[in-house]
């Protein structure tokens, strides 16, 4: 480090190879073992005789573990949004089929109670779906 800054001349520094050869260790050198996962996080295993096509969609758990965290977060969020939209559509269809979305006309002869209260549009059905599923 001092040589990089120019404080010591290069001829006074020993290289790492010379330093390692000078020091004799009393202990047996440790054998280098191959790692399954490298230190940067990549997989160091080679799959042989395994068909890789369609592997991701056969096992959902392994697929989610192997994906990047951004993709896992995207799938998790989109699953919630899809569920909320599906139930919002169901609630909206129930209100539409029962006639709750029509403008309130004051008729004394036909006073049916609304099937689902406080649903006036698809937006209110979506918010109702979120409220029902979260709480």
UniProtKB/TrEMBL annotation:
**So which domain of life are we looking at?**
Eukaryota
Q: Where in the cell is it found?
A: Membrane
Gene Ontology biological process: potassium ion import across plasma membrane; regulation of monoatomic ion transmembrane transport
Entry's Gene Ontology cellular component terms: monoatomic ion channel complex; plasma membrane
**A GO molecular-function descriptor:** inward rectifier potassium channel activity
Record has Transport as a keyword: yes
Give the record's family classification: Belongs to the inward rectifier-type potassium channel (TC 1.A.2.1) family.
| Protein name as it appears in the record | Potassium inwardly rectifying channel subfamily J member 11, like
The organism encoding this protein is Erpetoichthys calabaricus
Q: What is the lineage of its organism?
A: Eukaryota, Metazoa, Chordata, Craniata, Vertebrata
């Amino acid at each position: 480090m001092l040589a990089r800054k120019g404080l010591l001349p290069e001829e006074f520094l020993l290289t790492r190879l010379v330093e390692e050869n000078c020091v004799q260790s009393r202990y047996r050198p440790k054998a280098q073992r191959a790692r399954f996962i490298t230190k940067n996080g990549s997989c160091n295993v080679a799959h042989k005789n395994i068909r890789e096509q369609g592997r991701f969609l056969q096992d959902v758990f392994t697929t989610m573990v192997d994906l990047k965290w951004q993709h896992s977060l995207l799938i998790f969020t989109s699953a919630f949004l899809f569920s909320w939209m599906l139930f919002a559509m169901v609630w909206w269809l129930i209100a539409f089929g029962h006639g709750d979305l029509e403008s309130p006309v004051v008729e004394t002869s036909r006073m049916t109670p609304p099937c689902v209260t406080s649903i006036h549009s698809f937006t209110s059905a979506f918010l109702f779906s979120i409220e029902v599923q979260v709480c």
